[in-house]
Amino acid sequence: xxxxxxxxxxxxxxxxxxxxxxxxxxxxxxxxxxxxxxxxxxxxxxxxxxxxxxxxxxxxxxxxxxxxxxxxxxxxxxxxxxxxxxxxxxxxxxxxxxxxxxxxxxxxxxxxxxxxxxxxxxxxxxxxxxxxxxxxxxxxxxxxxxxxxxxxxxxxxxxxxxxxxxxxxxxxxxxxxxxxxxxxxxxxxxxxxxxxxxxxxxxxxxxxxxxxxxxxxxxxxxxxxxxxxxxxxx
Length: 234
Fold this sequence. Notes:
Blueprint: H1 2-35, H2 41-56, E1 64-69, E2 79-83, E3 88-93, E4 108-109, E5 121-131, E6 134-141, E7 156-158, H3 165-171, H4 185-195, E8 200-204, H5 208-213, E9 232-233
Parallel strand pairs: 1-8, 4-9
Antiparallel strand pairs: 1-2, 2-3, 5-6, 5-8, 6-7
C-alpha cells in the first residue's frame, strides 16, 4: 500500500513538473496577444516558444522580449517590445530592414557578411554603446546559419532618421539599413535601455528553411507547420 501511494505521489509530481512550463507559456502567450491586438497571434506564439526554448537550452530567463514581423511592410508598425514580468506592451514601432532585403516588403534574408540584408531568428542583446549611428545596442545571433554572424556584421539596434512615418507616407516605404533593425531616433534611447543586457529579440518571416530547422521554435520535437509563403534565405 505504501509503495502504491509512493508511486502515485511520484507520478503526480512528474505530471506537475512537466505541465507547469507549458501552462506558463500558454498563459504568457495569451497575455501578450491581448496586449498587442494588432500583432499576428501566430508570430507572438512562435516568439514565446522561442523564448521558452532558450530557457530550456540553459539560457537565463529574460524580462523583455522584442518581436519583429517582417512579413509586414515597412510602412506598418511591425516591432513590438514586451515586458514579460508585467505582461504588457512597452513599444509598438516602425523598424527598418536591410536594403538588400527588399523595398517596402522584406523578401530576402541573409547571414552573410556584406550582404546588407536582414537576418531571421532569435537574438540575445548585449551592451549598449555610442557609435557611428549614435546610441546603439549590440546583439548576438543565436541561430547557426541564420543570424550567428550578427555580431561580426555589426547588426545592432540604433536610431535612424530614415525610420519615419513622414517618409513612409511620402515614399511608400521607410528608409533601409545595412541589415540593422533601425528605429525612430525619438524612441531609440529608451527602447535600447529597455532591451539591453541579455534580453531577446525574435526576427520573423515565414521562411520555410528557418521554420523547419530552428532549434528555438522546434525544441519540443514537433516541427512548425509550413508557412504558405516562400522566400530566399542565404
